[in-house]
Amino acid sequence: MQKANKKIKAVDFFCSGGGMTCGLTQAGIDVVAGIDFDLSCKETYEKNNPGSKFVHADVFELKEQDLEKDLKLKRNDNNLILIGCSPCQFWSIIRTDKTNSAKSKDLLKEFQRFVEYFNPGYVLVENVPGILGKKDKSGLDKFVAKLEEKGYKVHYEIVNMADFGVPQSRRRFSLIATRVNKEKIALSKKVKNKKALKDVLGERNGFPKIKPGHKDETSFSHTVAGLTRTNLERLMKTPKNGGSWLDWADDKKLKRKSYQGQGFKDNYGRMSWDKPSPTITTKFFSISNGRFAHPEENRAISIREGATLQTFPKNYVFYASSIANQARMIGNAVPPLFAKELGKTILNADK
After folding, report:
1. Which of 113, 139, 238, 290 has the fewest CB atoms within 10 Å distance of its CB?
2. pTM above 0.90, yes or no
3. What domain range includes position 66?
């Protein structure tokens, strides 16, 4: 049972637009601050999470003592959670150029500095499954060993967030460490019936039909990227409710030379009403970057549809200068609903 006087606070490293902060706050945890090097996330983070301060900093340069003073944190605080959900493209199993994300491969090691300095009651880490497959190179081995050396009980696993109510197939590495509980803390509450696309999107769920290139001037952001004539023709030939590019792979006009009958099978594919969506990435606004086409309409999913699949509240506003910047914040986020489950799990853990 949750202790009546148990008030947990948290600091959200690599917070981006605030998905983790949003969910933990919903669970009843006081997230005092989020830290990120991307200043463009500040407005989105602070306006949607009142009371949580955005700290603009590069974790490679941030000093533990400076953070301690700035946020008035205490070391060895049993009621403090440090969260490290670092950008994870480098350890993704998707075969893409890792040059731009190479620096991010050491973020877990930098986060470890703060864990060792503050010695918080709890530690949360969320990342791509690939970090576990390469745990020696990613620093995960040493990170877990150091936690255990300091007396933490560490539980980690690969979870599919669809099992926790997120309408999306999103497999992630999830770690919960505690040094104040008698037993390891693990997520256990799984939904019996996974949510499908039809449960959250479509006209009956508040998403009117729109055309490619539609720009929603309201804060709802039911905005969608435009399509070239060729891509529009490709979608028109892609069967509704789950069709793929294989249906026009041999069309001399529409097929892409780079595919040659091969390639990523989900690119240009449509989502299915009766299934959870595929993993929402930072490129979900583009049909060429995954199965991100609407099940019926000839367009990619909108910014708000992507945010909804990530379980952001519909009144959560993404302040950014472009669709790409909004999508980056959304795709990089920990789904708030999953974060809420993490928070409730910690609050309800027996002492």
Report:
1. 113
2. yes
3. 9-190+334-348
